[in-house]
Amino acid sequence: MAFLMIPLGLLALTAGAESLVRGASGLARTLGLPPLIIGLTVVAYGTSAPELAVSMKAGISGQADIALGNVVGSNIFNVLLILGLSALVIPLSVSSQLIRLDVPVMISVSGLAWLFAADGRVSRWEGLVLAVAMVAYTALLIRMGKRTSASGDASRPAGDIPKTRKTLAGNILFLVFGLGLLVFGAQWLVSGAVRLAQHFGFSELLIGLTIVAAGTSLPELATSVVAAKRGERDIAVGNVVGSNIFNILGVLGASAILSGEVNVVPGPLNFDIPVMTAVAVACLPIFFTGGRISRWEGVLFALYYLAYVAYVVLASSQHEAAKTFSWAMLWFVMPATILGLAASLFYGCACKKTRRPPM
Asked: What pTM value is reported for the model?
């Protein structure tokens, strides 16, 4: 049953998220918001609904490892693999708003989650702080979007949809149908993942960091890759950044509020949460380089995700190669990457001064 429940759950989650995003996007476009704001809010929150449903279900059921692992694993998956694959499709241009506001917010909330988890748990009041911050950030984005649209500074409006009763009813129907699929999909996926972990002797944390995290991030992956292919680069990048912010503030916050607290075991506290924060920090110099994410940077992100999954599997199985692998990453790969990013940042600044586009 576990082998059947997991793919059915993933299918329901993906279909539900697609329906939810379609309905929400239709409603949002009537407000005349620019594409980046749509990507950071409606699309990002809609595609993160699976993470919210799964983490809340896991938290209420007492499976805190899956709830926490899902948030942390999804954020790492979003930046490293989704941005990596999207940049491979086409180099992604990055809005100045992302560099000035949204990426610093993503870095800040990642550090805040690390701070809250430092005592081994995320309490209910800390979850409430995260949820309030989510509301404040969303309100700020909507206000900025309306102001940008009114001043005519937006690159282009998200689209015009007639405000008819038929259109409104259709969008609400998509929203309700999507939410229903998300609820059932979350239940199937969590139940199947727990049974699978118990059957093979894997920890719930490993399943949450890999299978569940990657599975619930499939809507983000599909959305960003398709958006990049169609030239909707603001939506492609905004979807990832907005999803990561929502996962920490909304998903982790709601899980802590509903379950009373989310326990944090030493493994993710010492490795996975720092990795999540590190990849958020890495976005800033990469986004700043020429205002774009190049294909080689996309390859770098994708390779890092494969390395991360390899380490998580080795560490979970207590394989003797885990220590050697972590040593190589710490003392060879990471310094080489830092030097490469520094060179890329220097080259990007030089190109800006000479007004030449980076390669």
From this structure: 0.77
Q: What is the model's pLDDT at position 73?
A: 85
Map residue 93 onto helix, strand or coil: strand
Interhelix angle 295-316/64-77, nearest 10 degrees: 150
Q: At what angle do helices 295-316 and 321-328 cross, to 10 degrees?
A: 150
- Residue pLDDT, tens place only, 195-233: 777 777 777 667 766 777 777 777 777 777 777 777 777
Q: How far is CA 88 from CA 98, 306, 313, in A?
A: 20, 16, 26
- Residue 190 structure tokens: 């969590």
- Rounded distance, CA 36 to CA 158, Å? 9
Which sign, positive or negative, has the C-alpha torsion 71, 75, 77, 78? positive
Task: Give the Cα separation of 170 and 161 in Å (integer).
Answer: 12
Domains of the chain by residue range: 2-354
Report the C-alpha gap between 242 and 333 in whole angstroms.
28
Angle between helices 49-60 and 165-200 (to 10 degrees): 50
Helix (H, G, I), strand (E, B) or coil at 92: strand
| 247 vs 49: CA distance, rounded Å | 9
Distance from C-alpha of 86 to C-alpha of 292, rounded to nearest angstrom: 12
In this structure, the number of other CB atoms found within 10 A of the CB of residue 239 comes to 33
Q: Residue 358 gets which letter from DSSP? A: P
Which CATH number is associated with domain 2-354? Answer: 1.20.1420.30
For 318, phi then psi, to 5°, come to: 55, 40
45, 239 in Cβ contact below 8 A? Answer: no
What string of DSSP letters covers 198-241? HHHT--HHHHIIIIIHHHHTHHHHHHHHHHHHTT-HHHHHHHHH
Q: Name the residue among 199, 196, 229, 201 with its Cα closest to residue 215.
A: 196
Portion of the chain with pLDDT greater than 90, in percent: 11
Q: How far apart are CA 142 and CA 228, in angstroms?
A: 23
The Cα 161–Cα 296 span in angstroms is: 38
